[in-house]
Write a structure and sequence with these properties.
Elements: E1 2-4, H1 14-18, E2 24-27, E3 30-33, H2 44-48, E4 54-56, H3 61-64, H4 72-79, H5 93-102, E5 116-121, H6 123-140, H7 144-153, E6 164-171, H8 176-193, E7 197-200, H9 202-210, H10 212-217, E8 224-233
Antiparallel strand pairs: 1-4, 2-3, 5-6, 6-8, 7-8
Helix pairs in contact: 5-8
Bound molecules: flavin mononucleotide and iron/sulfur cluster (SF4) (2 copies).
Residues 4, 9-15, 31, 48-51, 53-54 line the site of one iron/sulfur cluster.
């Protein structure tokens, strides 16, 4: 259950813009919660709220709006957010290349570093990938939820209007996927460190697995598959607060 405290709310709409599932909408100038829409409990709404006016029953009040850590590493980790609103211009190529080069310092099984990066660069090309994916889904009846989101709500959870898609490609084999995911997670933090917005492209990843024609359109080399997709761009949104996260599920023996 979530509550928006009307007495604190200044009706700025920031929570509504941040909500990835459209559970929040603006009605008569005020945010409204739609209980029938899915909630990811991502807390993006609370992380965006300038008034700290959003409360989740499941969250203890003393944990709800914690201070931003002063430590720069903790700041990067807690303030890294999945960005889904991007400016139309792509980030500088050199900045993207820098993050991928620095991610070479990530650990790698037997130090093999098999990850290959495929970069779809520029808004037009990323939009093209999205359109191709939707067309193929329709033609081949694959992942109908993606098509339904596009048709009913004009919602793009596949590329989120990004301006660069980074695909971490892995060869078949023991640790290829693990290595690629570690490299992508490292690259993501580095990108956010230099102000580039990122969001993991789970839909993109699954569509590439399900649609050979999409792999062909992107020229993914034989013997390789997409192990991780990062949707990137210059953020068109700024999060203010650290969102609540549950404690780790740990069993000590
Ligand atoms: C493997 C993975 C796949 C994801 N796929 C998508 C996706 O396809 N579309 C999307 O909008 N967000 C996607 N996300 C983002 C998650 O929804 C997000 O990480 C989560 O809600 C927590 O928010 P935060 O990253 O801002 O902390 C994905 C995240 C991960 C780790
Ligand atoms: S927690 Fe996430 S999905 Fe749920 S209402 Fe807030 S922004 Fe939307
Ligand atoms: S972000 Fe906060 S202040 Fe703005 S509309 Fe949402 S609840 Fe109200």
């Amino acid at each position: 259950m979530m509550t928006i405290y009307a007495e604190k709310c200044i009706r700025c709409g920031a929570c509504v813009s941040a909500c990835p599932t459209r559970r929040l909408t603006m009605e008569n100038g005020a945010p409204v919660v739609h209980a029938n829409q899915r909630c990811l409990t991502c807390m993006h709404c609370a992380a965006m709220c300038p008034q700290k006016a959003i409360h989740f029953d499941a969250v203890p009040s003393y944990e709800e709006y914690i201070d931003t850590p002063e430590d720069t590493v903790l700041q990067l980790i807690t303030m890294r957010r999945s960005i889904r609103r991007f400016k139309p211009e792509a980030p500088e190529r050199d900045d993207l290349a820098w993050a991928l080069d620095m991610a070479q310092w990530a650990p790698s099984a037997k130090n093999l570093r098999p990850t290959q990066w495929l970069v779809v660069y520029g808004k037009d090309k990323c939009d093209d990938v999205y359109r191709t994916a939707i067309r193929l889904c329709q033609e081949q009846n694959v992942m109908p939820d993606v098509v339904a989101q596009q048709k009913a709500e004009n919602r793009n959870s596949v590329t989120c209007g990004c301006t660069t898609i980074l695909l971490a490609l892995a060869p078949e084999g023991e640790w290829g996927d693990t290595d690629a995911v570690i490299a992508a997670a490292t690259a993501e933090l580095l990108l956010q460190h230099i102000g580039i917005g990122t969001c993991w492209g789970g839909y993109m990843h699954r569509l590439l697995a399900a649609l050979p024609d999409l792999r062909e359109a992107l020229n993914i080399p034989e013997g390789c598959h997409c192990a991780a997709a990062l949707l990137c761009g210059i953020p068109d949104e700024t999060y203010r607060n650290v969102p609540w996260r549950p404690k780790a599920n740990v069993e000590w023996r």
